[in-house]
Every structure is written in structure tokens, then in C-alpha cells.
Design goal:
It is built from seven helices and ten strands. The chain has a domain at 14-152 and 208-228: Rossmann fold. By secondary structure, the protein is of the alpha/beta class. Strand 8 (160-164) and strand 9 form a beta hairpin. The protein is 28% helix and 19% strand. The strands form two sheets. A seven-stranded mixed beta sheet has the order 3-2-1-4-5-7-6, with helices on both faces.
């Protein structure tokens, strides 16, 4: 089921969302009051905000200075343990270093996000349990120009729901990845991730929960408030 994005007061700041996919990161920033522009090399028809189809590094080099904050979620297939086996023999772009260099040169605050195994500096680690979500989904964030404290990392509450060896097991979490069956329905994935503007499994699977970037957005706003005091 699709739901409209909730209304929120705008804060007058703009975020550039690079390698945006369907907008998981974007919706978190939007909920904190930011206007968001997404950039991706592939068409993203379900991206809920202004979208530009372009190379992320090239677009950032030309336009990052026009924004107050940049978020980049470069492709994770090169580093993800979930896809190293299934994608063996395929090559994927590794944009972490090029994006870091480009955004550092732009001289504005930015966030890099990726999975375990990626060459990120781990300034912040977030987990779905921190936000009461139905996914574990650890993600790492490299922060430039500001800091954000992590919520308490609570113990995981149980097993991941799904089909194993022909038997369904209940649990408080879902394994939101891949196209195969036995991992939950689309509505279950939507609720687990807090993503309700797309019903496409691949888009939900590639996203990060908006709660993660909402937390980062509020931390960034707190930094601005403290600097102005």
C-alpha cells in the first residue's frame, strides 16, 4: 500500500542526495524539513522529490556548492557480503573515494553511507533496532563537517522472520534484500523499513530506512544551532 509523505515545516535548507535510488535517505532529510534534490545514473521513477539523471561525481563537482549538505550512498555491491557470492564475476563502480575527494574539495558538510566491508571511516553506526524498526540493517556513516551521536544500540529482540528449510519462522525482523520468496510480503517490508511510497521490492531492498537520515539531519541541525549560539 502506498501512503503520501507526511507534511512537515520546511527549514529553508537544501540537501543533495547522490546515488539516490528510490529515496530512502531523501525521505529522512525531508521529514526533518530539508528540501531534497536526488541524483542517480539510472532513472528513478518512484523518487518522491526533484530528480536529476546524471553521473553523481560529475554532478557533485559542478553543483555541490549550491547545497547546505550533501548525502551520498554509493553503490554497495562491491563491498556487501550479501552480494559478493551472487554477483561473483560482475564488476560494480566503487565511488566512495571519488565522491569523498570531490565533496571534500567542495568544502561543505557531507555524509557518506555504505555497508560493512566498505572503505568508510565509521563515524556513526546505525541499526534498525535503535528506531524500533523491523530490520536490523547495520549501516555505516562517514561524517564531514559535523558530528552526530548514535542512539543506544539495544540488544536484538529475536530471529529474522522467513522461510527456512520449508518452514516459516516468525520474528521481529525481516531480511529485506533480494527478489526471492520466503522473506516476507511487500507490505511487511514496507512496514519494517518505514518506506511507503514504493511497492517495488528492489527499491525497498536497496534503500536505507528514512529513520537513519532523519536522525542525522536533526544532528546536523543541532550543530548549526550550537554554532549560531
Amino acid at each position: 500500500m502506498l501512503h503520501p509523505l507526511p507534511a512537515r515545516p520546511a527549514n529553508g535548507l537544501r540537501v543533495l542526495d547522490l546515488c539516490c535510488c528510490a529515496g530512502g535517505a531523501a525521505v529522512g532529510y525531508h521529514s526533518a524539513g530539508f528540501d531534497v534534490v536526488g541524483v542517480d545514473i539510472d532513472p528513478q521513477p518512484n523518487y518522491p522529490f526533484e530528480f536529476v539523471r546524471a553521473d553523481a561525481v560529475e554532478y557533485a563537482a559542478a553543483n555541490a556548492h549550491r547545497f547546505d549538505l550533501v548525502h551520498a550512498s554509493p553503490p554497495c555491491q562491491t563491498h556487501s557480503t550479501l552480494t559478493k557470492g551472487t554477483n561473483k564475476g560482475r564488476t560494480y563502480p566503487d565511488l566512495v573515494a571519488p565522491l569523498r575527494d570531490t565533496l571534500t574539495a567542495a568544502g561543505i558538510p557531507f555524509v557518506l553511507e555504505n555497508v560493512q566491508g566498505s572503505p568508510l571511516r565509521r563515524d556513526l553506526t546505525l541499526c534498525g533496532e535503535m528506531f524500533g524498526l523491523g530490520v536490523i540493517r547495520h549501516r555505516y556513516f562517514e561524517l564531514h563537517g559535523f558530528t552526530v551521536a548514535a542512539p543506544a544500540h539495544l540488544p536484538h529482540r529475536g530471529r529474522v522472520a522467513g522461510m527456512r528449510h520449508g518452514k516459516w519462522y516468525d520474528g521481529p525482523y525481516f531480511a529485506v534484500y533480494g527478489e526471492g520468496g520466503g522473506k516476507g510480503t511487500v507490505p511487511q517490508w514496507q512496514n519494517a523499513m518505514g518506506i511507503h511510497w514504493t511497492t517495488v521490492r528492489r527499491e525497498i531492498a536497496e534503500a536505507i530506512p528514512p529513520a537513519y537520515t532523519a536522525h542525522i539531519a536533526h544532528g546536523f541541525l543541532n550543530t548549526l544551532t550550537e554554532a549560531a549560539a
